[in-house]
Amino acid sequence: MNRSVAAFVAGVVFGVGLIVAQMTNPAKVIGFLDITGNWDPSLALVMGGAVVVFGIAYRLSRRRSAPLLAPAFVAPRQREVTAPLVMGSLVFGVGWGLSGFCPGPAVVGSTFSEPRVWAFVAAMLAGMLVYRLRRPRMPTGAAEDSGAA
């Protein structure tokens, strides 16, 4: 199977999973994140299911010398917790908590013609562009070495 076809199929399966799990519904996500109010624990089951599937797939992958569609497994080499990592995590978490949108579900949700989602995706893309224009230039190959790829 071609890598592009595999990526497309994986993306469709992921998108359908996000829709079925209601991760594209900001009210559902905010209900899950609101642990001091009217908490909705149903998304914990979604996360638990994802952890179980990943755990099984990871164990099976350890038996292979290489992935099916790549010459080798690639793991991040950088293990330090850095200020940019912490800041990025904070921005991600605050944005998710305030809007109810995570980037993946927002992209999937943008296909449902809801202007609020389009505004979030536009802001997300603008933020990515600003970061790309303002970040310090890395030497060639640095992104792969840092695990950022």
Description:
With 149 residues, this protein is mainly α. It has one domain. It is 64% helix and 0% strand. It contains 7 helices and no strands.
Strand and helix map with partners:
Blueprint: H1 3-20, H2 26-33, H3 42-61, H4 83-99, H5 103-109, H6 115-134, H7 142-146
Can you summarize this structure?
By secondary structure, this protein is mainly α.
**Average of per-residue pLDDT values:** 84
Rg measurement, Å: 18 Å
Oligomer: single chain
Portion in strands: under 5%
Give the number of helices.
7
Main attributes?
mainly alpha; 149 residues; single chain; disordered C terminus
